[in-house]
Design goal:
The N terminus is likely disordered. The protein contains 13 helices and 12 strands. The radius of gyration is 22 Å and the shape is globular. A hairpin with a 4-residue loop joins strand 10 and strand 11. With about 375 residues, the protein is of the alpha/beta class. The strands form 2 sheets. A 9-stranded mixed sheet has the order 1-2-3-4-5-6-7-8-9. A 3-stranded antiparallel sheet has the order 10-11-12, with no helix packed on it. It binds pyridoxal-5'-phosphate. The site of pyridoxal-5'-phosphate has 7 residues, from strand 1 and strand 2.
Length: about 375
């Protein structure tokens, strides 16, 4: 779709509903230039120049839908910090890296990361509808946007056919839902011809930043390739909109089990009450909170990072006060590709022989007989 030159701002009220809800229209009209963002959010020349400089290092894009959400909710820092470039991103911090999880090393075939025995991560593209400022694959989000070529996809399929221990593929990126239905259908069809692949999992942020991507046709297509799981990257209760609700119910009605992935971010969601509201809200949208990730040490994100102790305290609050259904795992990805590790404050100590001393959330101690004769 061709974009008008010098587009300033698209008021929700000026766009016919069918167009607003057309995902390719939303995609074509993303805000991708500092000047546009400046015009939309009334920024001064210095702020615009800063965004321009930051965006040269890490791409910027915001859908009209998400920009409208920021407007509607009164520009809360929690949404702002996730998508608007911050000059702090340019600070070089020796503790941070561009590929903190050493994904490149575990990638023998381009775009395929095989770290855990039974599952493989496929990076379909480096394109996203919105470029999150906390992205942990920032190495893919600079320069121009690229997609996998058909030859690269063929190499994946060959790898997957040859590795019979792989039971699951995780389609990620970039955002895998940036591919058209037709292209996804072709890939899923080929994956389904590999008998030992049991589970197909998507990791996507589009239901949150471009919920209109979840069309009836898309759901119908996914349904043909069951079992398909879909995990949604969401970080704040303000992102729980009616549009997201519609998208999730459509997917759930099509038999797609939904999970969520949340990144713990300073000044965005590092607060027990906020996360409790998010996880409870997700359950109502038929999304099972799956993981709360400790932020990876990615270059350009120092200003969004928080401590593991903070995360543990938040999890204690959640565990003590929230339905077990609404609780995600709190997970940190160890450096150098050593993999994900679940974190939780120990709620027990070793007592005398055969006794474990439990520490209930209500306080005190509860000695527990281990039960071995
Ligand atoms: C996170 C991740 C997975 C998926 O891990 P789960 O614990 O199954 O969610 C798979 N491969 C790589 C390389 C990952 O980083």
């Amino acid at each position: 779709m061709k974009r008008e030159p010098k587009l300033k701002w698209i008021e929700r009220s000026q766009v016919p509903d069918h167009q607003w809800r057309d995902w390719s229209w939303q995609w074509a009209y993303r805000l991708t230039e500092a000047a546009q963002i400046g015009a939309v959010f009334d920024l001064d020349a210095e702020q615009i120049a800063q965004i321009e400089e930051t965006a040269r290092r890490f791409r910027v894009a915001i859908t009209p839908y998400y920009a409208d959400l920021i407007h509607r909710t009164g520009r809360p820092a929690a949404l702002w910090k996730q998508v608007i470039p911050d000059p702090a991103e340019l600070d070089d911090d020796p503790r941070l890296s561009l590929d903190p999880l050493s994904e490149q090393r575990d990638s023998l075939v381009k775009g395929l990361v095989h770290r855990y025995t039974d599952r493989v991560l496929l990076l379909l593209t480096d394109r996203c509808a919105v470029y999150c400022r906390h992205c942990n694959r920032r190495r893919l989000a600079s320069g121009s946007e690229h997609d996998r070529t058909p030859i690269e996809v063929e190499l994946w399929l060959r790898y997957l056919r040859d590795h019979k221990q792989v039971r699951e593929v995780i389609l990620s990126g970039g955002d895998p839902l940036s591919w058209s239905d037709e292209r996804l259908n072709k890939l899923l069809t080929k994956l389904r011809q590999i008998a030992h692949l049991e589970i197909i999992r998507f990791g996507t942020r589009l239901p949150v930043v471009l919920p209109f991507r979840i069309t009836d046709d898309f759901c119908k297509m996914l349904k043909r390739h069951q079992p398909v799981y879909l995990n949604i990257h969401i970080n704040h209760p303000l992102e729980l909109t009616i549009e997201l609700h519609e998208a999730c119910w459509k997917l759930a009605d099509s038999g797609i089990p939904l999970g969520s992935q949340t990144v713990l971010l300073k000044g965005v969601n590092d607060d027990g009450a906020i996360l409790q509201e998010l996880f409870r809200g997700l359950l109502k949208m038929r999304v099972k909170p799956y993981c709360l990730y400790h932020p990876d040490p990615v270059q350009g994100t120092a200003h969004l990072r928080t401590s593991i102790q903070k995360g543990l305290d938040i999890m204690d609050f959640l565990i003590a006060n929230t339905s077990g259904l609404a609780l995600p795992h709190y997970v940190v990805d160890a450096p150098d590709g050593k993999g994900k590790i679940p974190l939780q404050n120990p709620r027990h100590t070793q007592g005398s022989e055969g006794v474990t001393v439990l520490k209930p959330f209500s306080g005190g101690a509860a000695p527990y007989d281990d039960g071995e004769a």
